[in-house]
């Protein structure tokens, strides 16, 4: 991995790549690096909009990756690997770090446990419903013109 760090988040995305996100190496990082197991290579990707460590990262069924919480914050950011872009989403009600996260196939993400702003251990679970993404349009077949006829193939 190009950037040494601890307290980072990582997720395996639907594109077959692994993302190392945020963390701490003497300073708080917004760094994002993508690992391709097929080629054994790392690529630096767009950084998060807000650096943090102690966050949870989860790959969701919509193909996006979510960076959740982190040291003393409740921020949720969404990463789209296809466009290499981050978007701020609605924050969690409770700031937390050192948490776990899980995504379900029906479009929900759960932030689980962690430590809150008063440095108390949390036993709460918060749920977010993922945004519904527009459906990929089905291509319309191009009709064949009336003069279009199959070309016979030569045999021989």
SSE arrangement:
Layout: E1 9-12, E2 18-24, E3 28-36, E4 41-45, E5 56-59, E6 65-68, E7 76-80, E8 85-89, E9 100-103, E10 108-112, E11 125-129
Antiparallel strand pairs: 1-2, 2-3, 3-4, 5-6, 6-7, 7-8, 9-10, 10-11
How would you characterize the overall build of this protein?
With 156 residues, this protein is mainly β. Helix content is 0%, strand content 37%. It contains no helices and 11 strands. It has strands at 9-12, 18-24, 28-36, 41-45, 56-59, 65-68, 76-80, 85-89, 100-103, 108-112, 125-129. The strands form 3 sheets. It has a 4-stranded antiparallel sheet, with no helix packed on it. The chain is globular and about 40 Å long. The model is unreliable at 134-156 (pLDDT under 50).
Write down the CATH topology. Neuraminidase
Gyration radius, in Å: 21 Å
Classify the secondary structure makeup into a structural class. mainly beta
Specify the number of helices: 0
CATH structural class:
Mainly Beta
How many discrete domains? 1
Specify the CATH architecture. 6 Propeller
The counted number of beta strands is 11
Estimate the helix proportion, in percent.
under 10%
**Strand order, largest beta sheet:** 1-2-3-4
Largest sheet: 4 strands, antiparallel
- Report the portion of residues in β strands: 35-45%
Distance between the termini: 59 Å
Q: What pattern of helices and strands is seen along the backbone? A: EEEEEEEEEEE
CATH superfamily: Kelch-type beta propeller
Mean pLDDT: 87
What general form does the structure show?
Answer: globular
């Amino acid at each position: 991995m190009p950037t040494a760090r601890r307290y980072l988040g990582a997720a395996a995305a639907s594109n077959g790549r692994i993302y190392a996100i945020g963390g701490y190496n003497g300073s708080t990082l917004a760094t994002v690096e993508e690992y391709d197991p097929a080629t054994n290579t790392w690529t630096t990707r767009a950084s998060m909009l807000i650096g943090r460590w102690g966050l949870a990262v989860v790959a969701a069924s919509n193909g996006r990756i979510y960076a959740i919480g982190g040291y003393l914050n409740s921020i949720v950011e969404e990463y789209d690997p296809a466009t290499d872009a981050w978007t701020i989403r609605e924050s969690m009600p409770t700031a937390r770090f050192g948490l776990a996260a899980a995504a379900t196939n029906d479009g929900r993400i759960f932030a689980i446990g962690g430590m809150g702003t008063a440095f108390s251990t949390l036993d709460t679970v918060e749920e977010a419903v993922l945004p519904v993404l527009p459906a990929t349009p089905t291509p319309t077949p191009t009709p064949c013109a009336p003069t279009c006829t199959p070309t016979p193939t030569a045999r021989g």
